[in-house]
Here is the input.
Amino acid sequence: VLYSPGLTPRWVRRVEQEQVCRKGRVMVTEKRPLNVSSYIYGAGDVGLPGYDWENDFELVRLATEAGVWIHSSPNYGGQDNAGGTIRFLRECFDKLGARVPMILKLYIKGYEGWVEGTTSDPRLNVEDMCSILGMDRVDIGQIWASDKLLTDLPERGPVYQVLNELRDEGAVGHYFYQLEPSSKTSEIELLLESGVVDGFMYYHNVIERDVSNDVYDLLAARGTPQIALRSFGHTIVDYATWDSATALTHPNASPETIERVDALRQPFEESGCGDWVEFCMGFAASLPTVLGTIGSTTKPEHLRANLAADQAAEPLEQKVIDMIEALQREWYATE
Here is the structure.
């Protein structure tokens, strides 16, 4: 799977990551280059039942021709149309005559009583997605709903084995593990020591940093590659300058979200950014271990704005980052 002919992302970061390689009991390291576009289009809402084909095709066309990666999942498409999104993406890729690298969710719901051929089987999951999308591999597999993997790791059990086999065979390029607020530092250490994961994903933007302070500090100290989910924190209603916290949030936003946006007004004004999109993209560009940020939209004009902001993104001043991170440390402090 290559970038579209003649197109490469504006800002591709190369990480020379020390990746643990398994050769019996002998642990060696090798360089595993990892290239991810700094903005990744989240294709979670294309191809839904009753969708506007021209509108959704335009979204995929814009992302593909810009050369940015696309993130999706085999269960996207609506309750009665699971898989509809990746089938729609295949239709678009065929019409465009081009594909871009993809991050795809892998569902590992358990291995006890594992029935070969179910969607809990990572191998079938990968093979099905590649077949539907017309790809020869999953560029990054997002390991999600994987508490069973953590249970499996100490004994190097069947989930551990099949994930490594898929990567050794070239069916999956890299694995990123999705963290949650309940994730513990001991789990991070276990995952890194196992050599299964190449990095981590979690909701990380100016509004959200969905891991504890201890986990965040550990990832920073280790320099572990990360992909940030939800570029704009589900905050944007329109791409306007700051009027009020409420104006930047969805109508059904929680009081907590509105309070957080309001608390960010000072760092926003200190940043000198012209609008919320520039502010959010600048924040992602300021984080040294974040390879890319995944942002979704259903409006082509908003995707054009996102792509333009990505092209122009510059890191925020350190004093602004310090203000944002101080707020996040308060929001994610644990007892």
